[in-house]
Design brief:
Its main location: membrane. The protein is an alpha+beta fold. Helix content is 56%, strand content 17%. It folds into 4 domains: 224 residues, no CATH class; 160 residues, no CATH class; 218 residues, no CATH class; 134 residues, no CATH class.
Length: 843
C-alpha cells in the first residue's frame, strides 16, 4: 500500500496540474447525480421541519378534536375547556354559493363557519386588510370572505351579496391566506369563511347533514401532548378524532414524504446514468495510462499494487465529485428558497440539513464504486506485453470473480438502502429492477447495433457510399462509442419516456372514462323529505339516462374483533378518518357478492355488514369477523356476513361498509344521488334542484375530476423535472464520449481526406453515425419507458395502459438530435486538421 499510495499521490499531483482534464466528465456526472438527490432530500426535510415548527399554526391549535355529523355536547365541551386555556369551535362542509342575477350563478365551495376565537394561532390574510371580526360581523347582513378563485369565477366584488342555503351574506374581503388551511386536506371547491352565527339562518346545518365540527385547543404552556391525548381519550370513545401539533397536517406530510421518496428514486436513475459516464471516464483514463501500467508491471509491480494505485486515485476523485454534488445540492434549495416557498402551500424551513446530504453521499459513493471497480479490476488482468502492443484496457478479459462478487454485493447494498430509506419498498424494488433491466437491455442493444453495423458496412448496397460505409464501420468497429452513448443517453431517455407515458395515461384515463361512465352530478345532503321531489324532477327528465340514490351516514371504524382497528390494520386508508356508511335491505346483483350470504329483506337480528372485498383482503378480514363502527357517537358492532365488489373507478356511488337496515334504524341521515344526464341538460337540472332545495349541494363530477387531474399534473411536472436532470446527466456523458473520441476522429478524417474524401463526406459520416446511435438509444428507451409506464399504471395506479406515440416519437427525435449536436460540436477540429501533420505525428 505504501508503494501504491506514493504512485497515486504523484499521479494525482500531475493530474491536478493539468486541471483533471480526463476526469471532468467523471466529476460532472457524479456531482449532478448527488446534487439532485441531495436537493430533493433537503427540500423534503425542509418541509418536514416547517410542518413540525409551525405544527400548531398549521393545525390551528395545539390539539384538535373532530366530530362527524354533530357538535360536541355540553359534557364534551366541558372536558375540552378543562384541558385547554382556550377553545375555538369551527364547522366545515361543502355547499353552493348562489349569486342572484338575471341568470342565477352557482359555485361549489368548501364552507367554514368559525367563532370569535378563530384562529388561535397565525394570522388570516385578507384583501382589503381588516380583522376577522370586522369581516364577519353582522351589519345589515352577516359578512363573509371567499377565496379569489371563486370570486373571479362568479364575478363578485367586495360589497356584493350572495346566498348560502337560505341565508344572504355580504362579501367583505378576499381570503388570501388561511393559516390552518393545509390541515384541512383536499377540498373540491375554493374556501368560503363565515361566522357560526351567520350560518344559523342558512338551513345548511341539519340532522344528518355531511359536516364536521372541529375544536382547536390552546393548551397551557409546557403541556405534554401525549398526556393531553390520554386525558381526552374518553372523547375518542364517543367518535371524536384527536390530532395535535406533533402531526398537524398528516396528509400533507405523508404526501410530501412519498413524493420526495419517489423523486429520490428518479434521482437514483440519474445517478445510474452518471455511473455509466463514470465508468467510461475511468476506462478512458486507464487507457491513457497504458505506458505507466506497462512500466510498473515490467519493474515487478503486482496486479494488486496497480489496482490499489488507481483505486486510491479514483477514491480521491469520488470524494471530490461527491463533495461538489453535496455543495450544489445543499445550496440549490437556499438559492431557490423564494420560489419553493411561493409554490408550496405549507411552511418550509429552508436550511442545510445533514441527513439528506449523508444519504446522497452514501448513494453517490456506492454508485461510483460499483461502476469503477469493473475497469479497475480488469487492469490487473492485462499482461505487460499486451500493453506494449498499444492494446486497450477495454479489450481485457473479465476481472476476477472476487471483484465481480464485490460489485454485486455493493449493488445489493445500494438497492437495499433505497428500499429501506424510501418507505415505499414495492416501488423502490420495482425501480431498481427496472433500472437493471434497462441497463441490460441497453447493453444488449449496443452490442446488437455494433454487430449489425459491422455486417452492413460490408454489404454490397453501401459500396460507393463513402459517408454511409465509414459511419457504419465506425459504429461497428473497435473503439466504438456505441456502448457509452446508448447506455447513458438511452437510460436518461428511458426515464423521461416512462414519465411521459405515465403522465399521458393519467390524463387520458380521466378524460377517456368521463364521457362514458361518470355521472354528471353528485347531489349530497338530500333530506329524507326532499328525496321524492328530487326523484320526481330528475327521473322524469328525458335527457337523464340514470339516477342512483343511497342513504348516507359517516362512521369511524374503531375496532376489529374487539381489538383496536389500528393494531390490526395499521395506517390503512380505510381507517384514516370517517368513511361513508349505507344500509340496504335487498341484495345487490349476484355478480357483486364475492363471498358469504346477504341478509333477508326483513332481517331484524344482530347487526350485519357487507364489506368491500378488495379492502377487506388488504386489511386481512374474514367472514365472521366483528367490526365496530362509531356512527354519531354510538358504537355499532356488526358481524361480516358478506364481501362485495365495490368499484370507485367510475365516480359512482360506492361504500366500503354496508349494513342491514335495522342496524341503523333511527340514526339521522341524508341521501346522496348520482345523476347521469346529457351535458346540455346539466345547468337546468342544477337550477331546478338548487331552487327547490337550497341546502342540497351539487358537485359537478367533471370539475371534481379536473381538480384531481391538476394535482396529478403537478406530480407529473415534479417528476419530469427530476427526469430532465437525469437526461442532463446523460447528455454530459454523451459529450464526454464525443470528446473522448475526438482524437480518433481526427486521425480518421486525415485518412479519409488523404484518400480523396471531401469535407462534406467526412462531416456526413460523423453526422450519420451520431444520428444512428441517438436513434438506437431512443428506440430502446421507448421500449423500456413504455414497459415502465405499463408497470406503474397497472400495478401502482391499477388502471389501463395505452401506448402514447407522440411522446415516443419526440424521444427518438430528441435522442438523435442530442447525439447529432454533440457529434457535430466535436467535428470541427477533425475537419480542420491537416492530414500531413496528423499522419506525420501518428507515424
Amino acid at each position: 500500500m505504501s508503494v501504491a499510495l506514493k504512485i497515486a499521490r504523484r499521479e494525482l499531483r500531475a493530474g491536478f496540474g493539468s486541471g483533471l482534464r480526463g476526469f471532468r466528465v467523471f466529476l460532472a456526472c457524479l456531482a449532478l447525480g448527488v446534487a439532485a438527490i441531495a436537493a430533493v432530500g433537503s427540500v423534503r426535510v425542509s418541509i418536514e421541519e416547517g410542518l413540525a415548527r409551525e405544527g400548531a399554526v398549521i393545525l390551528g391549535g395545539d390539539a384538535e378534536l373532530t366530530f362527524t355529523y354533530r357538535f360536541a355536547d355540553d359534557a364534551e365541551r366541558a372536558l375540552m375547556e378543562d384541558l385547554a386555556d382556550e377553545v375555538s369551535e369551527t364547522v366545515d362542509f361543502r355547499s353552493m354559493v348562489v349569486v342572484d342575477r338575471a341568470e342565477v350563478e352557482r359555485g361549489l365551495t368548501q364552507v367554514r363557519g368559525v367563532d370569535a376565537a378563530w384562529p388561535l394561532y397565525g394570522e388570516v390574510g385578507l384583501d382589503p386588510p381588516m380583522t376577522m371580526a370586522e369581516a364577519l360581523e353582522t351589519r345589515d347582513l352577516p359578512g363573509a370572505v371567499i377565496a379569489p378563485l371563486l370570486v373571479d369565477r362568479l364575478a363578485l366584488s367586495v360589497g356584493d351579496t350572495f346566498r348560502l342555503g337560505t341565508q344572504e351574506f355580504e362579501l367583505r374581503a378576499l381570503l388570501l391566506d388561511e393559516p390552518d388551511g393545509a390541515s384541512s386536506g383536499f377540498g373540491l371547491g375554493p374556501r368560503t369563511i363565515v361566522s357560526l352565527q351567520g350560518l344559523e339562518g342558512s338551513g345548511l346545518i341539519q340532522t344528518g347533514t355531511l359536516y364536521e365540527s372541529q375544536y382547536r385547543l390552546r393548551l397551557p404552556e409546557g403541556t405534554d401532548l401525549a398526556d393531553a391525548e390520554t386525558a381526552a381519550s374518553p372523547l375518542e370513545a364517543t367518535g371524536a378524532r384527536w390530532r395535535d401539533a406533533r402531526n398537524g397536517a398528516p396528509g400533507v406530510a405523508e404526501f410530501i414524504d412519498r413524493i420526495g421518496a419517489f423523486l429520490v428514486l428518479v434521482g437514483l436513475a440519474g445517478l445510474a446514468v452518471g455511473g455509466v459516464g463514470v465508468a467510461a471516464a475511468v476506462r478512458a483514463y486507464l487507457d491513457g495510462k497504458i505506458a505507466t501500467i506497462a512500466t510498473l508491471k515490467t519493474l515487478g509491480a503486482e496486479g494488486r499494487t496497480i489496482f490499489a494505485t488507481y483505486f486510491l486515485q479514483v477514491s480521491v476523485l469520488t470524494a471530490m465529485g461527491v463533495s461538489l454534488g453535496l455543495v450544489l445540492g445543499a445550496f440549490a434549495p437556499l438559492a431557490f428558497a423564494p420560489v419553493i416557498e411561493a409554490i408550496l402551500p405549507v411552511p418550509v424551513a429552508i436550511s442545510v440539513y445533514p441527513a439528506p446530504l449523508l444519504e446522497a453521499a452514501w448513494y453517490g459513493t456506492l454508485t461510483a464504486m460499483i461502476f469503477t471497480l469493473w475497469p479497475l479490476a480488469r487492469t490487473a488482468q492485462v499482461r505487460a506485453a499486451a500493453l506494449f502492443r498499444d492494446a486497450s484496457i477495454g479489450a481485457a478479459a473479465w476481472p476476477e470473480w472476487r471483484y465481480v462478487l464485490v460489485i454485486v454485493a455493493l449493488a445489493v447494498i445500494l438497492v437495499g438502502s433505497a428500499v429501506w430509506a424510501s418507505g415505499i419498498p414495492r416501488l423502490a424494488l420495482g425501480t431498481a429492477a427496472g433500472l437493471l433491466f434497462a441497463l441490460a437491455l441497453l447493453a444488449l442493444a449496443a452490442w446488437g447495433i455494433r454487430a449489425l453495423c459491422r455486417r452492413l458496412a460490408r454489404a454490397r448496397f453501401v459500396r460507393g457510399h463513402t459517408a454511409v460505409r465509414t459511419a457504419l464501420g465506425a459504429v461497428g468497429g473497435p473503439g466504438s462509442e456505441a456502448g457509452s452513448v446508448v447506455l447513458s443517453l438511452g437510460l436518461g431517455l428511458a426515464v423521461l419516456a416512462a414519465v411521459g407515458q405515465i403522465d399521458t395515461n393519467l390524463r387520458s384515463a380521466i378524460q377517456r372514462d368521463l364521457p362514458d361512465v361518470a355521472p354528471s352530478y353528485f347531489f349530497v345532503d338530500i333530506q329524507p323529505d326532499q328525496l321524492q321531489p328530487f326523484l320526481d324532477r330528475v327521473e322524469n327528465d328525458p335527457q337523464v339516462s340514470r339516477v342512483d340514490t343511497a342513504p348516507m351516514l359517516r362512521g369511524v371504524i374503531t375496532q376489529i374483533s374487539g381489538v383496536s382497528a389500528q393494531e390490526v390494520a395499521g395506517d390503512h386508508w380505510v381507517l384514516q378518518g370517517d368513511r361513508g356508511v349505507t344500509y340496504m335491505a335487498g341484495p345487490p346483483p349476484d355478480s357483486e357478492i364475492t363471498a358469504g350470504q346477504w341478509w333477508p329483506d326483513d332481517y331484524t337480528g344482530p347487526p350485519l355488514i357487507a364489506f368491500a372485498a378488495e379492502e377487506a383482503e388488504e386489511i386481512g378480514l374474514d367472514l365472521g369477523d366483528e367490526i365496530t363502527v362509531n356512527v354519531l357517537g354510538r358504537d355499532i358492532t356488526a358481524t361480516i356476513a358478506a364481501f362485495r365488489e365495490v368499484s370507485f373507478e367510475n365516480a359512482g356511488i360506492g361504500f366500503i361498509v354496508t349494513m342491514n337496515e335495522a342496524a341503523l334504524a333511527g340514526a339521522p341521515h341524508t341521501h346522496i344521488a348520482t345523476v347521469y344526464a346529457e351535458e346540455e341538460a346539466e345547468a337546468q337540472i342544477l337550477r331546478d334542484v338548487a331552487g327547490a332545495a337550497p341546502n342540497v349541494t351539487a358537485i359537478l363530477v367533471r370539475d371534481a375530476l379536473d381538480r384531481v387531474a391538476e394535482a396529478l399534473r403537478g406530480i407529473a411536472r415534479a417528476t419530469s423535472y427530476a427526469a430532465l436532470a437525469t437526461l442532463l446527466t446523460g447528455f454530459v456523458v454523451l459529450i464526454g464520449a464525443a470528446a473522448a473520441g475526438e482524437r480518433g476522429r481526427v486521425f480518421e478524417a486525415a485518412v479519409l481526406k488523404t484518400l480523396g474524401a471531401s469535407r462534406g463526406t467526412v462531416l456526413a459520416s460523423f453526422a450519420l453515425r451520431a444520428s444512428l446511435l441517438g436513434a438506437a438509444a431512443g428506440l430502446v428507451a421507448i421500449f423500456t419507458g413504455a414497459l415502465g409506464g405499463w408497470a406503474v399504471m397497472t400495478f401502482v395506479m391499477d388502471t389501463d395502459y395505452v401506448f402514447e406515440p407522440i411522446s415516443a416519437l419526440a424521444i427518438i427525435l430528441g435522442g438523435a438530435s442530442a447525439t447529432l449536436l454533440a457529434g457535430l460540436a466535436f467535428a470541427w477540429r477533425p475537419l480542420a486538421s491537416r492530414p500531413a501533420q496528423v499522419l506525420r505525428a501518428r507515424g
